[in-house]
Specification:
The chain is of the alpha/beta class. α9 packs parallel to α11. It is elongated.
Amino acid sequence: LFILVGRMTYQVLARKWRPRGLTSLVGQEHVVRALTHALASQRLHHAYLFTGTRGVGKTTLARILAKSLNCETGVTDTPCGICSACQEIDAGRFVDLLEVDAATNTGVEEMRQLLENAVYAPTRGRYKVYVIDEVHMLSKPAFNAMLKTLEEPPEHVKFILATTDPQKIPVTVLSRCLQFNLKQMPPGSIAAHLAHVLQAEGVAYDVPALALIARSAAGSMRDALSLLDQAIAHGAGKVEEAPVRAMLGTVDLDYLFSILEAVHSGDAAELLRLAADMALHSLSFGIALQELAGLLTRLQVVQIAPDSLDDEDPDRDRLLALAAMLAPEFVQLAYQIVIHGRAELSMAPDEYAGFVMTLLRLHGFRPESVADVVQAVHSSVQRAAAAKATGAVAIPAPLAAHSPRAQSSAQDGSGGAPGNGWRDMVAALHLNGLARELAQHCELKEIGESDCVLRLAPAHAHLQMKPAPERLQQALSSYLERPVAVRFELAPTEGDTPAVALDRERRDRQEAAVASIERDAFVRDVIENFDGALVESSIKPIV
């Protein structure tokens, strides 16, 4: 008595749900449309190049095209999938489909061996199809060996090249190919396809969990299906939001919404509590800041284009509420703080400290509207102009009334920004070289939320040599803690530039030093008794 025991093998979702035809290819409608028309009208090119990042369907599309060319029903945009040619291509054993990985076959000898049989007619199919993956990794001699065949191939030969880096392919090769760029798939399309797969597989799922997987896949359907396999195993046959978050290491959006709500209400204690709770759950603070930057991006999009928000978005109500609470200008500022905070995590004493400091920075820079800051600067400039006209002394308003710098100044009674306006700002920028000279010879004409206009006398136009303007712009943006575009206006300055003021002060100090020496009794005695003379150039002020 013999008992035959069969073993069922599991096929991963990325292979099981690999598209078998053009109509089932997700997210590449522009390529599908072009190939469908070409196949239907029998306008067949001899060489195709598919470009795009990993997992977007380059190799899959190459196999579908090979089936369309060799299907026993004829050249068609809808291969039957049941004839021997289609089934053998799907199984990877079709004798006239030659798939080559250029990453491991980079040399000229391998290319010559591959192409020497191109002159012979196909064994089984209608066309002999050469699929060369990662073609950009071929050596230069290998490309040269391929050129002649690629330019004038036999009628029965078709080339399908695939690459993630088309910039490395010689122009001579590119000019001989029909090129299609496969784009990264949007998260919405990926999530919809994952839902279709799970419904067909009979697996229970949460919609937010699929959104998390789609976002983590970064445009790659193959990566999304691999993550989905992992999520099913992690969730014991279910795909639910909490286990998926734990698997991916993503941060619960409730934390992020609560952080922004606490920032709006000015509740620093709540911010610290949230950070401690996240540390207790061993969440990644780097990922938390990445997710927070993503949430701020969504908020800004909702504020600028509210109609773009999907009615079925599970976070719709909370997004709309936050978008109404936070000023658009502050969302931009918060985004800058968060991405800089994430970049600085590696320099922090530890990730928790870096995360807490970023939250406290958000708390410190929480104006009702950054427009208030801009208005304060405009008011300062206007008061300075009025004071100049009347001969009075103007005290500028703070440049950032709600910043920690301004708050600390207010506490010690020194006001907000330095008392000498642009001159003190230049001193605080810590510039050197040509950038310092450029800043000192400029006069502040106006400063706004995102731009700054400096007046520069034509006599000093040569100071605009690169990279001085760029360094000045970077330093000013860092000082104001927001991106600022600096523009220069070539015109005679109306007031004293920092350079003029410094030169005048230097002369005043020198004159005071000379006068002090001349008043000294010992010096007067020496001059009178020994017929001496005072060498003024040797006198240097102490301070």
